[in-house]
Amino acid sequence: MKMTTNASGCTLTTENPSEVGEKKSVINPELWLTCAGPLVNLPVAGTHVVYFPQGHSEQVAASMKKDVDAQIPNYPNLQSKMLCILHSVTLHADPETDDVYAQMTLQPVPSFDKEALLRSDLSMKVNKPQTQFFCKALTASDTSTHGGFSVPRRAAEKIFPPLDFSMQPPAQELIARDLHDTQWTFRHIYRGQPKRHLLTTGWSLFVSGKRLVAGDSVLFIRDENQQLLLGIRRANRQPTNLSSSVLSSNSMHIGILAAAAHAAANNSPFTVFYNPRASPSEFVIPLAKYYKAVCGSQISLGMRFRMMFETEESGTRRYMGTITGISDLDPVRWKNSQWRNLQVGWDECTGRDRRTRVSVWEIEPVTAPFFICPTPPFYRPKRPRQPGMPDDESAYLDNLLDMSNKDPGLSLVQWMNMQQNSSLANPIQPNYLSPLSGPVLQNYGAPQISQNNLQFGSQRSTMPLDPLQKLPQAATMSPSPLASL
Amino acid sequence: MKMTTNASGCTLTTENPSEVGEKKSVINPELWLTCAGPLVNLPVAGTHVVYFPQGHSEQVAASMKKDVDAQIPNYPNLQSKMLCILHSVTLHADPETDDVYAQMTLQPVPSFDKEALLRSDLSMKVNKPQTQFFCKALTASDTSTHGGFSVPRRAAEKIFPPLDFSMQPPAQELIARDLHDTQWTFRHIYRGQPKRHLLTTGWSLFVSGKRLVAGDSVLFIRDENQQLLLGIRRANRQPTNLSSSVLSSNSMHIGILAAAAHAAANNSPFTVFYNPRASPSEFVIPLAKYYKAVCGSQISLGMRFRMMFETEESGTRRYMGTITGISDLDPVRWKNSQWRNLQVGWDECTGRDRRTRVSVWEIEPVTAPFFICPTPPFYRPKRPRQPGMPDDESAYLDNLLDMSNKDPGLSLVQWMNMQQNSSLANPIQPNYLSPLSGPVLQNYGAPQISQNNLQFGSQRSTMPLDPLQKLPQAATMSPSPLASL
DNA sequence: ATGTCGGCGCCCCGCCGACAA
DNA sequence: TTGTCGGCGGGGCGCCGACAT
Fold it and tell me: ATP-binding among the record's keywords (chains A, B) (predicted)?
């Protein structure tokens, strides 16, 4: 198994040749991430994550273009979320379609400690190397057999090696490798009236080889060795495998739930696949991201927030929205789940995916104006929190713990209670509770928390020692209540 | 849902447009069966079948090119076989690869009666319409862009409409439809020196459209309306979906077992997919086929048998073999399962698939010579059974019941006991037990059998009325023991 | 009987600048 | 700045019979 070590010292397992067969190539992580899109943030191997079976099931439903309707057995011991150690993350690309996906090995753990939270938070900072790239949606001319590919001027100047403009016309041979390490060669020429950058010879082979059509996107990046890499993103989000021909949609959903339930009961490892472009929402969330979102924010009806969306050109853009409801997405199967339990409205059209439900860790709360939120419980004169603004890292971490130790805002218990008890009639009047009880992270005496049924995962098995961490057995903290409370 | 009724009055559900999407075409059953191969025998909707989760799991493993190795939770209440009603059979073809597969809806039932057995036996006789067809493996010349398709002389004369030989050269336009009802047109010409049948114009579009390579096969059939249909069979049995990118192999296996266990516990319907060309063995067996094989034959070490194999040209051929062992394929997970529990050796090379393990219903026992089988328990002077020989139907059915009522040979209980108790040291000496007890089918007083744990499926739930059958509630018979005895 | 190849006609792939949006 | 098109040259697709097996 090949490991790459990034700047932070965290390891990212990229490919397991023994499992994929004779394939010897290693997926380039930068290229994989660029293909996955600007919003995808893979958790780092060795850190703690929160796994949502409901979201996992949702991704399969999206891949199959089918609802989760059929009768699926209840797994009463299966939580709506599971605290896990992420043992490995391997990057893959479908050899037929070039669709990127990740394979993650998770192992449920009953609780986490301070260091795990710190490590998770640290890992979130170093995940995305900001590689130089460009991404263009293919036009009808680009994909027709009549001609080549028209390269946007800025893109060519930023990514491609500089041309020798003493030549007439200036031209060079470009060699780029895709996710499977296949080489593609193109003739890059600067000609025409007015002058423009074009890819000619070799381009049609690429289009037909990848079966690209107008609307699909192609992207080029330069890695740290100045090597040219290229990837594709298909436009039509229609699932190719309408019916799986191997397993019924029902069996797939059952398989996911049963595998998770079995792993939870035995604290044993299990494997999931994450397809970034199949479904809009991630279902394996870094612990720190989850923790900060759930413990660090007040969620209330009428609350204003911002959220990131992907633009056509693979950029990001924030849209403003308002929380219009807090309710279970599936009150029958997943009661009191935090998975997409916020109903939202948007100030403007958010493009293709009009999401009406999001999870709390997907949004950035905006400090409410005084007439809506007269006593902001998060107001700190000395260190105001600006969600979404990059801070000095040490200050940020300090802030994270500071928040937990001194001013946790709503505890999770309060928040969950609020969810259950609040009447959702008035969308303007905020109906959160003011912070009353002590901070969660000060509860170092774990037993009483355990009695209160506040642990992640299964209660009947004792916590196995995490093989990846040799931490002193400090006090464990369990700030999250069970959804089945 | 479109239903077609064949000669016997049995219905075969062919396609469910609402589930596949906007696709309105109905899969032609004859074409589907021809593509599936001569050995495939689909059970008929409305009849009883025996479902083997182990075989189902095996097919998924073959599709994924992966062993069933990972830790899979035990389902102690899941039998190695389940008696089911087959509610529906819908035929499908992968839109990308044209691979044929069938979707079956099964519902566990605890027992069956005499009429169910008769209906199952009847349904086996009417399944295969012997359509006229030809099948040719494509040569390098057939698939190259240099030329067209060379049609074997006999094939063209048998399947294609006759040419007008007054023309110079004789030629016509052929229109054939594939499994998706897509029309393909070819120029059929009789020319060259020596004269031969060729498909020219249109052929290369077909080859590139289906992505055929040398070694793949193409087949043409004429349906009852004299319409030309065509299908393909790919040569390389390498699974296209090496890694599923949606579900881990482990979750798939768990999904199969959990779905079957849930259905068995609740006597509720569940759905399976059967890929005829992914794995060599069927895992949904008509009840009568299973019953005749298990109750109608003696199985012993050293026993001689014949078995059908598919030839290169989509024909059938029998190979002779010897039973060299009787043992569990998976003694840990599937103890005392009848799934491929016979180890066999072959007299000659059986071609590509050298199967070393088969199930008893896959073979045709050959009456052993006297020096090996001194007291053949099946010897009936008045009506000797000739396995594999087509009999008069009424006589055959009579024989089936006759056998059950008067001379069942080994009862299943005896046979299972034999499996467990026999020492397998001597491969020549037959070590079966001689028939001792009375016939199973005479045990009409079901309760005592139920006490002996001889029922299919779950015991705790009562048998739900089969909605497809309005049979008089005759006495039920339960000849099969549980594998977990 | 049929797989492969040389010959060769012509279609269309693909490179070019001219426009226009 | 860049999407589309007419022009047009040449490579290869594809039809033919000649062989060989």
Answer: no
B258 chain-A contacts, CB cut-off 8 A: 73, 251, 254-255, 257-258
- Written as one string, the DSSP assignment of A8-21 is TS-EEEEE-HHHH-
How far B439 CA lies from chain A's nearest CA (Å)?
39
Residue B408 reports pLDDT greater than 50: no
pLDDT in tens, A259-279: 999 999 999 999 999 999 888
**φ/ψ (deg, to 5) at B56:** -60, -50
Low-confidence ranges of chain A (pLDDT < 50): 1-23, 369-485
**Residue A159 near residue A133 (C-beta atoms within 8 A):** yes
User: Closest by alpha carbon to A364, among A342, A394, A383?
Assistant: A342
Contact of A208 with chain B, judged by CB distance below 8 Å, is answered with no
Which amino acid appears at position A105 of this protein? T
A301-316 CB burial, b ≥16 within 10 A, e <16? bbbbbebebbeeebee
| Cis ω for the linkage preceding A169 (within 30 of 0) | yes
CB B284 within 8 A of CB B51: yes
A49: enclosing H helix or E strand: strand A48-51
Looking at chain A from residue 279 to 318, which residues have their Cβ under 8 Å from any Cβ of chain B? none
Q: What share of chain A is helix, strand, coil (3-state, %, to 5)?
A: 25, 25, 50
Determine contact, residues B128/B41, Cβ cutoff 8 Å: yes
What is the per-residue pLDDT across B78-132, written as a single tens digit (0 to 9) for each? Answer: 889 999 999 999 999 999 899 999 999 999 999 999 999 999 999 988 756 678 8
Cβ–Cβ gap A273/B99 under 8 Å: no
A245/B272 CB distance under 8 A: no
- Residue ranges of B 237-256 with Cβ closer than 8 A to chain A: 240-248, 250-256
B chain contacts of residue A60, beta-carbon cutoff 8 Å: 246-247
**DSSP reduced 3-state for B381:** coil
A257: nearest Cα among A103, A112, A68, A87: A68
**CA separation for the pair A197, A456 (Å, rounded):** 56
Measured distance CA(B50)–CA(B480) in Å, rounded: 11
Amino acid making up residue B179: L
